[in-house]
Each structure stands twice: as structure tokens, then as C-alpha cells.
Amino acid sequence: MAGDAKTARFIACGSFDAASNMAIDEAILEAHLEDLVPTTLRLYQFSPPTVSIGYSQKLNAETQNKISSNGFALVRRPTGGRAVLHQNDLTYSFVGSSRLSDSAAGDGILSESVIGAYKQICQGLICAFRQLGFELEIGNSRSLGSDRIDCFQATTVADLHYQGRKLVGSAQVRRRHAVLQHGSIILNQPQELMSALTGEDQNGQSTHHANLYELAGRIVSIAELETALRSGFEQAFSIKFVPSPLTDKETEICQNLLVKYAVNS
Asked: Which of 95, 139, 161, 201 lies most in the core, judged by the most C-beta atoms within 10 Å?
């Protein structure tokens, strides 16, 4: 696979604990930086349910205790942004590069601009949901108010909404020429649950996010979502995404990172 510059990697959905999910994402980024693995799209879920917070986000002890006492794990992401509730959702992660290299790993498919890269990756999601019958749009706010805890309280240029209701919230980190962007796709999440966990009001919104199952009027299977997302990213980037697991090197990096994310959980 590393010898074919026209392919990227697709890792099908798996369910892992919070520390493992964050360690895997960072391991893929590190391996990609070393030109060991190509552009990668990974899908996953969290078990147990988790609240992830942005790299620089601060939560007071009372809020952290409330989240934990309600049976939710807590983890700090390597990316920025605000808190995201990972229950009845599907998370995607995308690792790519803005630099060409001698190997297939550095294919230079991403813009050097942060917002440009967000828009490119979001286009993969837009193409995917178009196949499912939904026309999503990129938000127009450049930032989420610093006083808000919940990522889904606003729709920024990193996020996607359907008719004004946020369906996908994303965050990004860039290391040299490589980018990791991951985000939550809401499948069927109670509107009030995150507010109950954080004690934050819903900013006057009774329905501040969209639920995919509600929009579709049915349960959309993970298999169907995998097919749509893989196809959507292939269309957006004009690259074939080939199913392939983590490499031994990524697994090694991941094991070394687990302690870091366990501490931040």
C-alpha cells in the first residue's frame, strides 16, 4: 500500500475506551509524520460513554466530578475545541498532509491553511451525507464563545449543520505538515443530556443539535455509514480508500501514548 500514491487507508469502525481512541489517533498522526502510513480515515465509538474536552479547555472539579459520577469517562483530546459527548454518536478521524514526500504517505492533499484543511475534510463529510439524502452546510462562525463548555452550542467553520441544527462537530491539530482532524456525528443523543452533565444551560435552544436517526426516520446502521463516509471521502479527495488495519509501528506508538491519555482521563 505504501508504494501506491493513489490510495489512502480506511479503518472500519471499532469501539474502544477513551484513552485508547485518543492514543490511536495520535499514533496515526505520528506515523504519518514519519512517512510510515498514508492518509487515513478511521471510524470509531467510545465504550464506556465519554466526554472529551479540548486540549486547552478547563473544566472545574465540580463539573468533572458530575461527569464521572454519572458513569461517563473524561478524556482530554490532542485537538482543540470544546467538550463533546460521545454517546450514541460515531466519531471519524482523518490524518493527512499538506506536503509531498517520496513515499505515498505524504501525498500533499491538504491545504496549508487551517481553515482550508477544515473545508476540504468537511467536504468529504458533505459528500457522504449527500449520499444518505442530507445536504449539510459548513458553519459560518469562526469561534465558539469562550464561555461555553459544549461544542454543540455553536456551529463554527469546523462544523456541519443540517437546516441550522449542528450534526457534526470537529476539531483539529496540526504538527508540521500533518493534520489530525476528528469529529463527532450525532446519531441519537438526548438534547438535554450534555447540559445535565455540565450544568450549562442550552443557551436558549430547545434543540441545539440534530440527530441522524431522527432526520432519517430510521436507524442508520454503522455499516451504511461506513460505506457512505468512505465513498464521500473518495469523492472529495479523488483517492481510493483501501481497508487496512493499524501497523505494528502504530500499535507500538499507541501503547506508549496510553499512559498519557489515561492520566488525562
From this structure: 95
Please list the residues that pair with 183 across neighbouring strands: 92, 170
DSSP characters for 134-171?
---EE--BS---TT--BGGGS-BTT-EEETTEEEEEEE
The C-alpha cell that represents 199 in the structure block: 450544568
How many whole angstroms separate alpha carbon 216 and alpha carbon 225? 12
Residue pair 66/197 in contact by the 8 Å Cβ criterion? yes
Residue 151 bears catalytic tag = yes
- In total, the chain counts a number of residues equal to 265
For residue range 162-205, what is the model confidence (pLDDT) as tens digits?
Answer: 998 999 999 999 998 899 999 999 999 998 888 888 877 656 55
Give the C-alpha separation, 5 to 24, whole Å: 23
CATH homologous superfamily of 7-263 equals Bira Bifunctional Protein; Domain 2 (3.30.930.10)
How far are the Cα atoms of 74, 79, 91, 114, 237 from residue 52, in angstroms, in the given order? 6, 10, 11, 21, 28
Domain borders along the chain are: 7-263
Q: What Å distances lie between residue 239 and 10, 28, 113, 232, 256, CA to CA?
A: 11, 18, 21, 10, 31
Catalytic residue among 122, 127, 151, 254: 151
Q: Could you give the percent of the chain with pLDDT greater than 70?
A: 88
